[in-house]
Design a protein that fits this description.
Blueprint (H helix, E strand, L loop, with lengths): L4 H4 L6 H18 L1 H5 L6 H10 L2 H11 L11 H23 L2 H8 L2 H12 L6 H17 L11 H26 L6 H23 L8 H25 L5 H7 L2 H14 L5 H17 L4 H4 L18
Helix pairs in contact: 2-12, 2-14, 4-11, 4-12, 5-11, 6-10, 6-11, 7-10, 8-10, 8-13, 9-15, 10-13, 11-12
InterPro entries: EamA_dom (IPR000620), EmrE-like (IPR037185)
Protein name: DMT family transporter
Keywords: Membrane, Transmembrane, Transmembrane helix
C-alpha cells in the first residue's frame, strides 16, 4: 500500500516563484552595470537620470500595449503608482547628489540600507510580515556590502552632506519597493508593464525640471554619449526595473530588496571586467557573504511568496494577488 504523496513527496518549487527569482537576479545585474555607462554619458548627473527614464518610455509603452492587446481595459491610475514614480525620482536625485559629494563607496554602502527600510515598512505600510530568516539575511547582506566597499569606505566631516544624500537615497529606494509591491498586488497585478510605464512617466516629469534647473550639460556631445544614454535606459530602466516590477508581483518586498544587493556585486564585477578596476580578496568575500544572506532569506514555500497578498495597507486597497 503506497503512502500518501502529500506526506513524503519533497516540496516542489513554485514555477512562478522560480521565474520571479530569476527575473529579480537579472534585474539586479542589469541595474548594476549602469555606472559603467554613466561615465560615458557626456551630460550632467541629473540629465543622465532624466534620459535614463525618458528614453525607456517608448519600449515600456510597447510592453504596456502588449499587455492590453486582447482588449482588456487598462486599470485607472492609482495612488501607489504615482507614489512609486515620485519616490523613484527622489532616489535617482539623491543618488547622484551623493556621488557628487562623497565617495562612490560611501554612497553605495549607504544606499544599500534600502532593505532595512523596506522590512520596517512592510508590516506598517503594506501589512506584509518579515520572517526571521529575512532579518538574518539582511544582516549578512549588510556585512557583505560593507566588505565589498570596505577598502574605500570612510567618513570625513567634509563629506557629511554627501553621506546624508546616500542615506536619503536608501529611504527613497525603499519607498519605491513598498509602493511598487503594493501596486503589483492590486489592480495592476496582471499588468506590470503598464505600472512601470506610468510610474516612469511621473519620474521623467520630475527629473526633467530638476535637470533643467541644476545641470549645465543636458545633451551629449557625440554619438558615444548618445549610445551610453541609450544603454542606461535599456539596461537600468527597461530591463532592470522591468524585471524588478515583474518579480514584485510574486515575491515579498522584503526579500526582493535583499536580492538587489546583487547590484553591488554586478557593479564591482563590471568595473573589474570593463574598466580594469582591481578586486581585492575582501571584496570577493563580501560578495560571497551577500550571496549567503540571500540564500538564507530565500522563500521557503509558495505560501510565503504570496505573503498577505489580499490584505489592505495604508497606500490604498489592493484587489487580487498577482501570484
Amino acid at each position: 500500500m503506497s503512502s500518501p504523496p502529500s506526506s513524503s513527496a519533497p516540496a516542489s518549487v513554485d514555477p512562478q516563484v522560480a521565474l520571479a527569482l530569476a527575473a529579480l537576479v537579472g534585474g539586479a545585474i542589469a541595474m548594476g552595470v549602469s555606472p559603467v555607462f554613466v561615465r560615458f554619458a557626456e551630460v550632467g548627473p541629473f540629465a543622465s537620470a532624466f534620459w535614463r527614464v525618458a528614453l525607456s518610455l517608448p519600449l515600456l509603452a510597447v510592453w504596456a500595449r502588449l499587455e492590453l492587446r486582447d482588449g482588456k481595459p487598462a486599470a485607472p491610475w492609482n495612488r501607489a503608482t504615482v507614489i512609486a514614480g515620485a519616490v523613484f525620482a527622489g532616489d535617482l536625485f539623491f543618488w547622484h547628489l551623493g556621488i557628487l559629494n562623497t565617495t562612490i563607496a560611501n554612497a553605495t554602502f549607504l544606499a544599500t540600507m534600502a532593505p532595512l527600510w523596506v522590512m520596517l515598512g512592510s508590516g506598517a505600510l503594506i501589512r506584509e510580515p518579515v520572517t526571521r530568516s529575512m532579518v538574518i539575511g539582511l544582516g549578512l547582506c549588510l556585512l557583505g556590502a560593507g566588505a565589498l566597499v570596505g577598502s574605500s569606505l570612510g567618513f570625513a566631516p567634509e563629506r557629511l552632506a554627501g553621506d546624508a544624500y546616500g542615506f536619503l537615497t536608501s529611504i527613497f529606494f525603499g519607498g519605491y519597493f513598498l509602493a511598487m509591491r503594493f501596486a503589483r498586488r492590486g489592480e495592476g497585478a496582471s499588468t506590470p508593464g503598464l505600472l512601470l510605464y506610468r510610474s516612469t512617466i511621473i519620474t521623467a516629469i520630475v527629473l526633467f525640471f530638476v535637470a533643467l534647473a541644476l545641470d549645465d550639460g543636458f545633451l551629449p556631445n557625440s554619438w558615444k554619449g548618445v549610445a551610453a544614454l541609450v544603454a542606461i535606459a535599456f539596461f537600468s530602466q527597461t530591463a532592470g526595473q522591468g524585471l524588478l516590477t515583474f518579480a514584485l508581483g510574486h515575491l515579498s518586498a522584503g526579500f526582493s530588496a535583499l536580492v538587489i544587493f546583487l547590484e553591488a556585486i554586478a557593479a564591482a564585477a563590471a568595473g573589474w571586467l570593463l574598466l580594469g578596476e582591481a578586486l581585492s580578496g575582501l571584496q570577493a568575500l563580501g560578495g560571497l557573504v551577500i550571496l549567503a544572506g540571500i540564500f538564507v532569506a530565500r522563500p521557503r514555500s509558495r505560501m510565503r511568496a504570496r505573503t498577505s497578498a489580499s490584505q489592505t495597507g495604508s497606500l490604498g486597497t489592493p484587489q487580487a494577488s498577482g501570484d
